[in-house]
Amino acid sequence: MCTLEKRGQLFLLKLTGDGEHRLNPTLLDSITSAITQIRSDPSSSQSVLITTSHGKFFSNGYDLALADSDPSLRVVMDSKLRSLVADLISLPMPTIAAVTGHASAAGFVLAMSHDYVLMRRDRGFLYMSELDIELVIPPWFAAMIRMKIGSPAARRDVMLTAEKVTAERGLEMGIVDSSYGSAAETVEGAVRLGEELVRRGVDGHVYGGMREALLKQVLHTIGSNESVSNRMRNSGSKLCHCWSGWLTSTCFCTGFGGIGGILRYQLDMNAFGEDLDVYDDESD
Length: 284
Known about the structure:
By secondary structure, the chain is an alpha/beta fold. It folds into two domains: 2-220, Alpha-Beta Complex (2-enoyl-CoA Hydratase, Chain A, domain 1), CATH 3.90.226.10; 227-271, no CATH class. 42% of the residues lie in helices and 20% in strands. Strands 1-2-3-5-7-9 form a six-stranded mixed sheet, with helices on both faces.
């Protein structure tokens, strides 16, 4: 769940609890409801949104355990996240993600959906896990990454090496705008930035329209329903575990046991399972 607090012209949206803030239908609905409440506020076009979290995770991506229990929910989660990101893009105000913990896969995309990304440097990674779990990202993720990560080398390291990006590395890559020594300092930095943006007095409706124009391709891709074909190299038990737990489609398998077999599958992009085993390092 999340809470929403208004401080002057700042809206502080916080993902609550000590869990991983997995993006399940309940949490996505809670965030979307908060965004709707913000949008309906008479002062919204002169305000700033700050999104942050409690605990060691900003968000660890989709709720995979829930999807295992009811595979139809993967479609629901994908649809709700698309809608939420579209809402953030059209929101008539600047948006700031104060990343105070790990942001993985869909959680990383949620952070990048904000105009500014601030991050603590003493803990936490930005991590696109799909290479490690042998999945191709959905096109709308790719569109967001192309828009938000300007350097081809940085995009390569995020997507094609699955680098776990620290705050300082994120600054080098141009993903993170500023870094701080703790979670509290990160939120304080976001508040200072938000207050500075409010003082500029920009019309939020104009700002939101400019953002929509800038991210037109992202919005177009979010709205598409194209299917994608993917190939996964067989990696033995890991492949079988992933297959049985998340994806549902037509396939054929050859060469089990890690000896070069190929699994071919086709699935609707709305049912894309994007982060099977995202981040579970309890030492951080």
